[in-house]
Amino acid sequence: MKNLLFLAGLLSSILLHAQPQVSLELVASGFDSPLEIVHAKDDRLFVCERAGLIKIITSDDNVLPTPFLDLTDSVKSCGGNCEVGLMGLAFDPDYANNGYFYVTYTSRLDWGASPWNATMRVSRFKVDAQNPNLADKASETIVMEVYEPFINHNGGSIRFGPDGYLYLGWGDGGFEDITNPDPYHNAQNPKKLLGKILRIDVSQLPYSIPADNPFVGDTTVLDEIWALGIRNPWKFNFDSQTGDFWLADVQHASQEEIDFHKFGTPAGQNYGWKCYEGDNIFDTTGCTLPIEDFTFPVHTYDHLSDSCFSVSGGVVYRGNASDLAGYYVYGDFCREFIGGIKPDGQGGWISDTLAYTPNVYISAIGEGFDQNLYVVDFGYGNPGTGKIHRIKTKCMDFSVQTFISNPIQCDSTCNGIVQFTPTSPNGSTFDFSWHGTQSTNLIDLTLTGVCSGMDSLQITDNAGCQLIYYFELTPEHPTPVPVIQVNDNELSLSGTFSSYQWYLDTAAIPDATNNTYTPTESGFYSVAVTNEFGCTGYSDTLFVEVVGTENITLNDASIVLGPNPTDGTLNIEISHTNNEPIVLSVIDALGHVLEAYTTHQPIWKKVLDLSPLSGKTVWIRIQRGEEQVLRPVIVK
User: Fold this and answer.
1) What's the CA gap between 267 and 572, in Å, rounded?
2) What is the pTM of this model?
């Protein structure tokens, strides 16, 4: 029974702000310094370890013993809390077909004379052709390398945007002396890639520049740059529903900041570093731009004097838990908390602390293909102490089972009967709302009169968690789709149906109930057909211009003759209810009968080829008993 083809939990809007209560559920452990978690549009999770391993967590929360990719001999890393190694992973939007994915990692690390420096690399790899859980290490193709004057602030994200282009986040190059951050002013230098968000096209390697990048054509700015004024972009992401861009940028001394760019609005933002740190002026040396040319954060939070500080970016939650709906969820590596930001509906933002997470060193928050959020616990660099947690709230685990007791037979009918049985950890009774009809305190709900097509049902549990449950009823039998064909002056249909009705200018044509029809006047023609299941379908409308067609009556016989004049083909249709024979004759100007036909059929059609008589006038005679009609026909 193929009636419920599409099911999806989407989130209702909560009118009153209620802060979600977030907890963590352990998914997997035993990782060495994990820094990233992403999906490949399937039920697997891919975890990047700093030293160069990418590991797979399966749908049953098991870690595969063989890494997806081992780059430990290529990645330059170090212990403790250093900021080098395998930083980011992004799967090509067409990964299911081309098998490409991209990583960013430290490819060179100079521990020689101070200052220590590094090179960051972006490379493309391909999945193994025979094993989807194994990458082909030999397939590496280098896309880009960027020199870093110091070994910190190397960025931490690589993402494909909703436009299909690859976005890269580079830090400002770091510093040797904490009192002099970004000593080369890279973040504000439009001729440097450091301290920027880049946007490139990797459809042809190594890469090209999208024509609509914000600074294309400006010789004072590198074409790759999409945004500037970045200090250390430790994870950015795109909202999977809206395409909006969210960036967590680690700051220096007083604040952490989160930046935002609305999808579809002009790019090229300058987020301020190091002229500004968060909302505060930091170092305006060489900062010649007016304040209105900077884009300030949508959220900042102050550093604590007795602790470290490092924001770790996350994602916007688009799963089925209504209490977390629409929150941008982020964390802090040092202060061990999870925060959330969401629009307040009036052009501003709501900011909440969603959970305190003691001894969880949050290096990233990612999204699974199941729309759950996953927290990466770095373990503070100690071997085997890294973990992956799943974010939970009271509104999660809210599900619905459906049962169709009366399937829909045909499209555009409304006789479906569907039973909905929700399950929630917050109680066994629910309130339902369907097309304005409220039903309260029920265990389940049965809807009658459900139409074919997409519909939705709002369900609320005892804790106030809301779910808008989308469903689609698909008819048991296909709707017939008649296609009108034109053959000479006749309209016909391919295929056989149980009944037919032809229309002219939306009005039913009397007695036009066959699979063919010969138009007698100009207009818009269509046809409705019914198949053996009683399902009715309608053709597209076809305009027909009838030229020189004449309607003739002879006793009870109706005769259609045309076109006249003709290029050589003359169509004749005779319909009558009497069995008396009708004789059709073609006569030349001298009275000679050139052709003659006799019919007893109630509906008789004939196409005469008069092309040998080109340039002449002939006569068509139609006889029935002692009655006859004559019509001259001009053959052009």
Assistant:
1) 68
2) 0.76
